[in-house]
Amino acid sequence: MSDLLTLIVGTLTLRPYVVVFLAVYLVAASRDLGLRRALAFTGWAWAVAFLAEFSSTRTGIPFGLYHYTEATRGQELFLADVPFMDSLSFAFLAYAAFCLARLCLGRSRGAVVFLAGLLMMLLDVVIDPLAVRGDRWFLGQIFYYPEGGVYFGVPLSNFLGWAVVGWAIIGGFAWLTDEARHPRDGAALYYGVLAFNLAVTWWIGEPLLLAAGLLLHAAVLLGLWSLACGRAVATREIGARDVLAASSGGFATTRPQGAGARSGCSPLLARAFRQPGGGGIGGVAKPPSEDGL
Questions:
Q1: N or C: which end of the chain has fewer CB within 10 A?
Q2: Domain ranges, ordered by start, for the chain
């Protein structure tokens, strides 16, 4: 029992920054999904991630072949050859991507799942090249790709694997629940994780990797802005058309040409980003309800 307690303490203290992200995630997800759904999401994400890691360290599917060095075995929890905390971290990464996608797309469940998987993969484009350089910062050299990779030492199959695992985690959960209310906290977590990894990339002196990450996510942010702006304008136009139809007895045939129809994206986008709940998951926004699956 004392050995297990030592391993649990070691798991929490070896990577305190991961524990901070995990704590922020649990608070945000509990507020967004309810405590029970947040815990269910955590368990589901860990299970999918562990199976993917267990397979990849043996067959190379889906992330490409890699191995944990097991340098910290005896200091933290392992399940087979996979550190428990590494698989658990997929929960907050998937949730953060899920929230950012919901914030931009709102009600389209399939599109949200697809975008969230891509966003999770794009976050790993910054995380994984930094992680393989773990011997140069406080992560340590915990894993390696025996054959290296073309993107700063990471094989492209890894990124495809992250997208697939993201779709499995987020898709499997999104189809089981329609309730979600507060995606903004999770979206902030996404950029918190990104900022941390970019800062460490700068700290270890990797200017090319830093520039690649900054340029990539600047383009991603611009694309997300465009998506959210288009959604806000479409929502405004539909609302204006409904009002016009109601005021004319339901026989309106002309398209309203309000400020939203002309351009005016920024104020509309700001309003869309302030909507509580971001429109729910795949349906109209729902009022807060009791926790429960």
A1: N
A2: 2-205, 209-276
